[in-house]
Amino acid sequence: MPLEISDDAVNVFRRDGFLFPLRVMSAIEAESYRACLEAVEAERGSLTGKFRSLKHHLVMTWLDGLIRRPEILDPVAKVLGPDILCWSTSLLIKEPGDGAHVSWHQDLTYWGLEPGDVVTAWLALSPVTRQNGCMRMLRGSHASRLAHADTEDDSNLLSRGQTITTGIDEDKVVYLELEPGEISLHHGNTAHASDPNASDERRIGLAIRYIATRVHPTEGQDSAMLVRGVDRFEHFDAETRPTADFDTAAMTEHDRVMAVRRGVMMEKG
Ligand SMILES: O=C(O)CCC(=O)C(=O)O
User: Fold this and answer.
1) pLDDT (tens digit, 9 = 90+) per residue, 167-202?
2) What is the domain partition of the chain in residue ranges?
3) Is CATH 3.40.50.150 the classification given to domain 16-264?
4) Which residues, judged by CB distance below 6 Å to any ligand atom, belong to the binding site of ligand 1?
5) Cα of 135 from ligand 1 centre, angstroms
């Protein structure tokens, strides 16, 4: 069922730089997506970690379907307009006690995309709580760019450990707890972070990065997948949808796309 979000909710997004929680599917559907994911993990090993988690929608048909769900795209379209590309997906899984965390950062600082019509829909496939390391956001921080420095930290899920060096006002920090089947939306410039999983349950999230078709790479070549509307700009190479999970055609497309992306190397894993 499509999800209507009100103009007030859109205004909250524009004011704060994020919006949550939005229920986009039942807990039972979320459970079935989680079962798909865990079946793949059982067969192929971990799908997450610093450099392993990107663009699995190019190799798994159920993820290709998920990123096109109208319940997710409708609220995204309220913010980005009718013509939408999926630029990336990222599986963000924290195992109990694995120490994985995300330092304070603004996505757009490193993604090489302009203008900033970039929204992440972050879908919970497990309960996501303060205890297991939910995201936290700095309200209103999308209005300006904050200084970042690269850090060496293997447990940081960000590829470069990019970290905001100053300007986090704890009074403006909001914790985004979610139930399975709920999403949060955040603007590409909103400062956010998350702590390690201190519970005994997995924390499973899927970040879907959507951009308006008018967005372009600031340098070099990049690719993306049209998921709604029309791409009148063609700033990105078109990606091919998978027709079977992990078949040769899908794996070849993933390799092709990741080779291009690795050249830019600003994403997180
Ligand atoms: O999953 C997390 O804890 C952080 C995710 C994140 O940084 C993002 O989706 O942009």
Assistant:
1) 788 999 999 999 999 999 999 999 999 999 999 999
2) 16-264
3) no
4) 92, 102, 107, 120, 122, 135, 192, 194, 205, 207
5) 6
254 Cα–ligand 1 center, Å: 22
Pocket test for ligand 1, best of 135, 159, 203 (most atoms within 8 A of CB): 135
H or E, element range at 10: helix 7-16
pLDDT digits (tens, 9 = 90+) for 199-211: 999 999 999 999 9
- For 15-71, the pLDDT digits (tens) are 999 999 999 999 999 999 999 999 999 998 888 765 556 899 999 999 999 999 999
- Say what the pTM is: 0.95
